[in-house]
Amino acid sequence: MSDDSVQNFGNHARWLPAWHFFVLPVLLINAIASLVTLAKGPSVGTLWEAVVAIALAVGFVYCRWMPLQVQDRMIRLEETLRLERLLPGRYTDFEKLTRAHLIGLRFASDAEVPHLVERILSGELTTRKDVKMAVQHWRPDHIRV
Q: Which domain holds residue 108?
């Protein structure tokens, strides 16, 4: 993610260099190398090495995936509470919004949320990316996982 205090669609993605460019590639290369070693010389030892390498890779992916799921649940709760404040009496409409819609809306300013919700409910904005691209005045989120 950019160090800029102003977020927008172009700079909001968060890359963790140690995670994305070191840990994951090393674990994936290790898993592939252990499978190649197993294929070249199958034995109980090489089988076990391959199983452990794959387990480590999968385990580390889940270590990242699980907090993201919790973050998505928190965003869903925060945005539902925000929508109740900004659009009182429309709870049945909120139930039609998907998790992806709510995640996209979290970056929108309070002033533009009602219009974006109408566009989502009309079917104009269908994906998280569509919603994020439609946001004109971003609320920065620098503390996400």
A: 87-138
